[in-house]
Amino acid sequence: MRLLLTKLSVIVSLLLTGNAFGQQMPIPIDVQWNLFPKILQFDRNLHQRVGDEMVIGILYQERYRVSLTSKEEIISVTTSMRKIDNISVKFVPIKLIDGNFFEKSISDKGIDIIYITPLRAHDIKTIAYICCEHDILTLTGVPEYVEKCIAVGIGEKEKKPLILINKNAAREEGADFSSKLLKLSKVIGE
């Protein structure tokens, strides 16, 4: 009986820790990608930061089904997306292996913005730090990531999408969102 209780407590503790199994997204990817292009248009530094072409990386884990499926859905949903705010846009999948590989990938592929899918067993703060060092704006559909250090996310309030802005992270990554967007959003880190 004692062994069974011990096993049960281990299973419960693993289920309660987000790092063990990754995080989930409350808002479907197609809804997120109807909102993200509109949100990006509120960044007063967007044109200056990305130039003539916006390269959006999709960070995912190949061996984590939720992450891999999210990447595939984003590619499917965005295939017809050619421009955001009159800037040509290109989506590039980036497989997450470790921090060094990630940093090399974003540099080699000229990433301007990165979307972070649900991840398992990776430190989001390290990913955010690398993005900040390279002035790469971070996006996600995992609300917990915005609370930690990711700049922009989509959460849920009363079963409707809620824009989440981590103001400190956005500023450190080089974004300057207008007050109009901030009034429509839940702002974290003021």
Explain this structure.
The protein has 190 residues and is α/β, with parallel strands linked by helices. It has a single domain (25-188), classed as Response regulator (Rossmann fold, 3-Layer(aba) Sandwich), CATH 3.40.50.2300. It is built from 10 helices and 8 strands. It has an 8-stranded mixed beta sheet, sandwiched between helices. The longest helix is centred in the first third of the chain and has 15 residues, at 2-16. The chain is globular and about 40 Å long. It starts with a helix and ends with a strand. Mean pLDDT is 87; it is low at 1-22.
Q: Give the percentage of residues in beta strands.
A: 15-25%
**CATH fold-level assignment:** Rossmann fold
On the 0-100 scale, what is the average pLDDT?
A: 87
Q: What overall geometry do the principal axes of the alpha carbons give? A: globular
Query: Over all CA atoms, what is the radius of gyration?
Result: 17 Å
Distance between the termini: 50 Å
Please identify which CATH superfamily we are dealing with.
Response regulator
* Strand order, largest beta sheet: 2-3-1-4-5-6-7-8
Helix content percent band: 40-55%
| E-strand count | 8
Count of helical segments? 10
Name of the CATH class: Alpha Beta
Low-confidence stretches: 1-22
SSE order, as H and E?
A: HHHHEHEEHEHEHEEHHE
- Count of the separate structural domains: 1
